[in-house]
Amino acid sequence: MKNPQKLTTAYYDENAEWWASRKNNSFIHESQFRKFTRYLKKGDSVLDIGCAYGIHVPLFLGIGRTLKYEGLDVSSSMLRLAKSRYPQLIFKRADIGDKKTLPKKKYDGFWAAAVLMHVPVEKWDDMFTNIERITKPHAIGYITIPKERPNPASKKDQRHFSLLSRTDFLKMISARGWKVLHSGEIDGSNAPKLWRWFILRIP
């Protein structure tokens, strides 16, 4: 059986240009971003986990312009696009599920929109531990996870999706002492209220 994370990475490496040309609504999370930034101050650092081709960068350059942005992603193709679009910013290749690849510094916040579901659920405990390793105490985070797979699996699209109920997700993070500050639902491109979103504080 092929590694699900490698299949996901391969998909994004092969389809980066397609995603960048079609998935370009940088402000779909604007209202959530405004809530998120209320908990951060000028000069605070934020790591964009799964930054892809920089889709959320316009939020940070505009509303979040006083924050220090860095992005990371597992896809080399996505990162090449991000770096070509925003050469003034820092982008790194890393896997949030693999601590050996992660930055050594600690951030005041993290942004993880539509990315953590690509990590197999049996690795989520390690994934959350890794997030804690690279963030400061009381860091603020933003997470979105889907209620169902946004697009049907196919021979071309073999991405992995971990699908958790709201109850199971809350049990998982509350066991770690993470506090939910705000939450809600947001539409997907193919279905209404497809995504659950959470603004959280780490202990």
Ordered list of secondary-structure elements with their pairings:
Layout: H1 4-22, H2 30-37, E1 45-49, H3 57-61, E2 68-73, H4 76-85, E3 90-93, E4 107-112, H5 124-133, E5 135-146, H6 166-174, E6 179-186, E7 195-201
Parallel strand pairs: 1-2, 1-4, 2-3, 4-5
Antiparallel strand pairs: 5-7, 6-7
Helix pairs in contact: 1-4
Query: Which strands sit side by side, in order, in the main sheet?
Result: 3-2-1-4-5-7-6
Q: Count the beta strands.
A: 7
| Cα-based radius of gyration, to the nearest Å | 16 Å
Largest sheet: 7 strands, mixed
Strand content of the residues, in percent?
15-25%
Give the SSE order as H and E letters.
Answer: HHEHEHEEHEHEE
Class of secondary structure makeup: alpha/beta
Helix content: 25-40%
Q: Which descriptor suits the 3D outline?
A: globular
Question: Which residues sit in consecutive blocks of at least 5 with pLDDT less than 50?
Answer: none
- Summed up, the helix count is 6
Give the N-terminus to C-terminus distance in angstroms: 38 Å
- Calculate the mean pLDDT score and round it: 95
